[in-house]
Specification:
The complex is a heterodimer of chains A (about 110) and B (about 850). Chain A is of the alpha+beta class and about 110 residues long. Chain A has helices at about 10-20, 25-35, 45-60, 80-105, and strands at about 25, 60-70, 75-80. Chain A has four helices and three strands, in the order αβααββα. Chain A has a three-stranded antiparallel β-sheet with strand order 1-3-2. In chain A, β2 (about 60-70) and β3 (about 75-80) form a beta hairpin. The mean pLDDT of chain A is about 85. The chains are: A alpha+beta (about 110), B alpha+beta (about 850).
Chain lengths: ~110, ~850
């Protein structure tokens, strides 16, 4: 198990939106993908994943539909909407700007 | 889809969405290596619900259910509260419902926006009537009108023996077509009414058909008799068919057939008369002003071709969408309506303040519970919301009951005063919307104000001392006193108004009206329709009068232009006499003795003596400042006289020398306080429309058959006679009902205010039971303790009383004019209301206080 399992606050929505960009994923797959891509450094708790997904649905950033997974299971996949894509770009920009600023402070003398 | 719509959609389909979410989570768990790491599905679903932002709704529903449960647990409070709210809102809704049906909505006719009534105007006078040939000429020559519709109301005798008088309406054949109505049975269309095969076809009105013809549809096609002439009933008008003047004719007769009934009648041929009510439909795109100007040209043509028609006349259009009212009439009506609405609004204020106080008292019993909630982290706003939502069921229940109340009340009033059957008092969205609006206002006082007050207290502290401190703080709160003061002021004002209404009714019913209607009867004979000239009519009338006088039952008889309690009104205003209208009557000299109106000075004019006038006491005093006016010229100064007549053919200014002073006798406008009478001798033209009044030796109800018999010298004439008492009863029905309703309202608001005072004192006394117990045990005099107990309501009660009385002065002034005629400041009404209020208020305040004082002090001490 990784040492730092939690996510930095405020980044969950950004990460979900980001992993959905290549294509639709179901809830379990979203959690898996975030863990994978972060090389097991970040993990999403189910307790915060589903409320976050509902918030994305409520804002119209993703759409959900029932599909059958490769393993033949019925799963609900989430797909990014055009509005969600715009939101992702905005949040990504914000995050990068903030991260760069924090880095600049940390690297200062 | 906008975010909002999505949220609403989610709310509507919430169960389905949550089922799906649960299924989705289950699938997720199944895929996990360690399903136990997933967590509690229920908790997650609850958290997910937060994302949609409907939590407040869930909480409110819970609060609402708590409110309902509390009501169920306290049925006595629930019933009282519901009654208070439904009375307060219901009264306002009743008023709204009646106004909506009768005044706010245009008559229910086809395209009312293009339909107008036309009044005939001359530079210095106006008339509601138009001559029939003029209306016909306009119909044929005015391009701005697509149709002209006329109506002339008149009494006709029903039945082969002409035994019953009914209300007839002579209408143009297009009457039903233009108003947009078909028949309930049979036909009412133009061709039905145009039938000219000897016997005219008539349409009977719905109410008449129901009450007199037994709702029998087979009556269509049968023969009936109108003024002894056979007619065929061709149709029955539907119930909803509106009368344009709030009239409900019993039978509609084609006006073109008028000469079939009265061969000598000049109505269809006379160019200078007020014979018909004229309506018209403006062509599309024609404005009211354009119609007026176009018709002015047509009227000029008529005046050129017919010298008897005065030049300079015009027809003033009054639109159906304005209920055929002039702008100033609408203003006047709105003033009256707002006055009544202010009074009923006051009732709601009293009711809401009362209930607000009650709710506040109940909330103080719960300060501990609220304190615990706050200690557990609830915010003040959450507490306010909880308390407000909890009072929604009371208000909602009350509002629902108030709608039922209003429907029932409007219908009872409609049947009591015999309102036209076409007025629609059924439940409509407008009424429900009005109920909702008033309920929201009520909630403000009943829910929000007490809740806010409670939430401002140190609720957490209340956990420690069992809420005693907070309860006392609430008990002493300013808002409580304001609520008591508002109740006292409102109910005091309403009591004064009710008491004034009752007094004014008593003035009419009990005191001497100045003329003797109990032993008199009236005879009317429509002679003009038989082609009699005024001179012939005069001869006929005097022949009839001789026959009447010959009967032993008759004590006296006189001919007059306006019989008491009925007839046309001819009012004149004089510059010398601001605020008083002079009602002029022309009469036989015997009139004074027949009606038993005493002569105070001088003499009565001789028959047909011109220029000799008798003035009433009030007219003499108001215009000349003395009763010593014999020989004075009238009017005092040759100022401008303003005439207002409803249906007088020609307006003439009364001038002459005063020969006598008669006692006041408000014989025409019984309830009016702003009229004075002027009498003069009859002139020959008066005989086109006069009446005969007769006095009985023993019983006025014996007179009508005698009068009818005497009037039947000419077999064509069908005389109409009735005892004056009937007119009186009809005239006083409205004031009686108004007085009854206002007294009931006054009594109920008084009861409410007393209940409010009782509640506050009783609650305060309970809170202080321990203190009072100690003081009694220590030997304090009971009187001083009583003062402590009622002190709380004394100041707000006194302030409320003063405010209420002052407001009553203003209300009395506003209600002193038409149509209420309350005596401007009636001291006895004020005193009566004050005494009643003081007595009831004292009982309400001292009763609970005394009850506490009488209780065993040790009992109170033993309590926690």
């Amino acid at each position: 198990m990784p040492k730092h399992a939690g996510l930095p606050p405020g980044t969950l929505v950004l990460l979900i939106l980001r992993v959905l960009r290549p294509g639709a994923l179901h809830g379990y797959a979203i959690a898996q993908r975030i863990r994978q891509l972060s090389s097991d450094q970040l993990s999403v708790e189910e307790g915060s994943l589903y409320p976050a997904l509902q918030r994305l649905l409520a804002n119209g950033w993703v759409r959900a539909e029932w599909t059958t997974s490769e393993t033949g299971r019925e799963v609900r996949s989430y797909r990014l909407t055009a509005k969600g894509l715009k939101q992702l770009d905005a949040e990504q920009d914000d995050y990068q700007r903030t991260a760069a600023a924090i880095t600049a402070i940390l690297e200062s003398a | 889809m906008s975010t909002w719509l999505r949220r609403v959609w989610h709310l509507i389909n919430r169960r389905r969405f949550e089922r799906e979410l649960a299924r989705e989570m289950q699938a997720h768990r199944a895929m996990m290596n360690d399903p136990s790491a997933f967590g509690d599905t229920h908790r997650l679903i609850e958290q997910s619900r937060d994302a949609w932002g409907w939590n407040w709704l869930d909480e409110s529903v819970q609060d609402l259910l708590v409110g309902v449960r509390m009501l169920v647990k306290a049925p006595a409070f629930a019933v009282t509260a519901t009654l208070i709210v439904s009375f307060g809102i219901g009264l306002n809704l009743t008023l709204y419902q009646m106004l909506q049906a009768a005044l706010f909505s245009p008559p229910a006719i086809r395209a009312p926006e293009t339909f107008a009534r036309f009044h005939r105007h001359e530079p210095h006078s106006s008339s509601t009537g138009v001559a029939y040939p003029v209306a016909r000429f306009v119909a044929d020559n005015a391009a701005v009108l697509s149709a002209v519709v006329v109506q002339a109301g008149s009494n006709v005798a029903w039945g082969a023996d002409a035994s019953e008088q009914v209300e007839g309406s002579f209408v143009s054949a297009n009457w039903f077509d233009e108003l947009g109505y078909g028949a309930l049975y049979g036909r009412v269309s133009s061709d039905a009414l145009d039938a000219r095969d000897g016997v005219p076809g008539v349409v009977v009105g719905y109410r008449f058909w129901q009450s007199r013809l037994g709702s029998d549809p087979t009556i269509v096609g049968t023969t009936a008799y109108l003024d002894r002439k056979p007619v065929t009933i061709v149709g029955i008008a539907p119930r909803a068919f509106p009368g344009l003047d709030f009239d409900v004719p019993d039978v509609f007769i084609p006006i073109a057939e008028r000469e079939y009934f009265y061969p000598q009648s000049a109505l269809l041929r006379e160019w200078n008369s007020d014979s018909v009510d004229m309506y018209g439909r403006l062509r599309s795109g024609v404005s009211k002003a354009a119609a007026r100007e176009a018709l002015r040209g047509v009227m000029q043509t008529i005046a050129r071709e017919h010298p008897e028609v005065a030049a300079g006349q015009w027809l003033e259009p009054l639109m159906a969408t304005d209920n055929f009212m002039r702008a100033n009439e609408r203003r006047q009506m709105m003033t009256i309506v707002s006055l009544i609405a202010a009074l009923t609004g006051l009732v709601l204020t009293v009711a809401a303040s009362n209930l607000g106080n009650l709710v506040l008292s109940r909330a103080t019993g719960r300060v501990r519970e609220l304190g615990v909630r706050m200690a557990l982290g609830a915010r003040r706003s959450r507490i306010v919301r909880q308390l407000v939502v909890e009072s929604i069921p009371i208000v909602a229940l009350g509002a629902a009951c108030s709608v039922v109340f209003a429907l029932a009340a409007a219908r009872s009033i409609a049947s009591l005063v015999a309102l036209p059957p076409y007025l629609d008092f059924s439940l409509g969205w407008r009424l429900v919307a009005a109920a909702g609006a008033l309920a929201s206002l009520t909630l403000l006082v009943v829910g929000i104000v007490p809740a806010w007050q409670v939430a401002q207290q140190q609720l957490i502290e209340a956990i420690k001392d069992g809420g005693q401190h907070v309860s006392r703080a609430l008990d002493r709160a300013v808002i409580r006193r304001v609520l008591v003061g508002a109740q006292v002021a409102g109910s005091c004002l309403l009591l004064v108004v009710a008491s004034m209404m009752t007094r004014s009714l008593q003035r009419v019913l009990k005191t001497d009206l100045g003329f003797d209607y109990e032993r008199a009867a009236v005879l009317s004979m429509p002679l003009a329709r038989h082609g009699m000239t005024p001179d012939e009519a005069r001869a006929y009338w005097y022949a009839v009068k001789d026959r009447v006088l010959g009967h032993p039952e008759v004590q006296g008889a006189a001919i007059v232009t306006a019989p008491p309690l009925g007839g046309r009104v001819f009012e004149t205003g004089f510059n010398d006499l601001p605020g008083v209208k002079v009602i002029t009557q022309a009469a036989d000299p015997d009139y004074f003795s027949v009606m038993r109106i005493p002569l105070l000075a001088g003499r009565v004019f001789a028959p047909f003596e011109q220029g000799a006038l008798v003035v009433s006491r009030r007219l003499a005093l108001d215009m000349y400042g003395t009763l010593d006016v014999i020989g004075q010229p009238f009017p005092k100064s040759a100022g401008r006289a303003r005439n207002r007549a409803s249906d007088v053919a020609s307006l003439r200014k009364t001038e002459g020398t005063i020969v006598g002073v008669a006692a006041d006798a408000h014989s025409i406008k019984v309830t009016a306080t702003d009229v004075a009478e002027l009498y003069q001798a009859l002139t020959p033209p008066d005989f086109s429309l006069v009446y005969l009044v007769a006095g009985a030796r023993t019983d006025a109800y014996r007179l009508p058959p005698i009068l009818r018999e005497a009037g039947s010298i000419d077999p064509r004439v069908i005389p109409i006679a009735h005892a004056m008492r009937e007119d009186f009863d009809r005239r006083t029905r409205g004031p009686k009902l108004a007085s009854l309703i206002s007294s009931a309202i006054g009594a109920l608001t008084l009861a409410l205010a007393c209940l409010g005072i009782f509640g506050v004192v009783s609650y305060g006394a309970t809170l202080r039971a321990k203190e009072i117990g100690i003081r009694i045990a220590l030997g304090a005099p009971r009187l001083s303790l009583l003062r402590v107990a009622v002190r709380q309501v004394l100041a707000p009660g006194a302030v409320g009383l003063v405010v209420g009385l002052l407001a009553a002065f203003a209300a009395a002034r506003a209600l002193s004019a038409e149509p209420f005629y309350l005596q401007s400041v009636d001291p006895s009404a004020f005193l009566a209301a004050l005494a009643l209020f003081a007595a009831a208020g004292t009982i309400a305040a001292t009763w609970p206080a005394l009850a506490t004082l009488r209780a065993n002090p040790l009992e109170a001490l033993r309590r926690e």
